[in-house]
Design brief:
mainly beta, Immunoglobulin-like, 3-stranded antiparallel beta sheet, 8 strands, ApaG-like, ApaG_domain, ApaG_sf, Protein ApaG
């Protein structure tokens, strides 16, 4: 891991959105709130995202695109950026992981890995 990669720390909180889910139709909606901390000495701009989403049946989908929630934020040193988004699974349990392509203030592109996190309907015994 490079110093640039180590300068970005990512935390995730998830929530099952019961009122917008329909288990009988295999529709389970989850929101996730991501907080990206820049613990480095220079600003870093989030350029793009890459997600790998796996449901309990082993089905995997990938999502790639520019920025997050319509933004390409620059995160200054010792600050953080937070956003909330969501995904729909066909199963009550799944896992998401991925990475952000970041751009340092001196023009270097580097990856900030998003550790795998669980999406689960509360009360599951998995």
């Amino acid at each position: 891991m490079t110093a640039l990669e180590a300068s970005i720390r990512i935390e995730v909180e998830t929530e099952y959105i019961e009122q917008q889910s329909d288990p009988e139709q295999d529709k389970f909606l989850f929101s996730y709130t991501i907080t990206i901390f820049n613990e480095g000495a220079a600003p870093a701009k989030l350029e793009s995202r890459h997600w790998i989403i796996t449901d309990a049946n082993g089905r995997t989908s990938e999502v790639q695109g520019s920025g997050v929630v319509g933004e390409t934020p620059t995160i200054d040193p010792n600050t953080s950026y937070q956003y909330t988004s969501g995904t729909v699974l066909e199963t009550p349990l799944g896992v998401m992981e991925g990475s952000y392509d970041m751009l340092s203030s001196d023009g270097q592109v580097f990856k900030a890995n998003i550790p795998a996190f669980r999406l689960a309907v509360p009360g599951l015994l998995h």
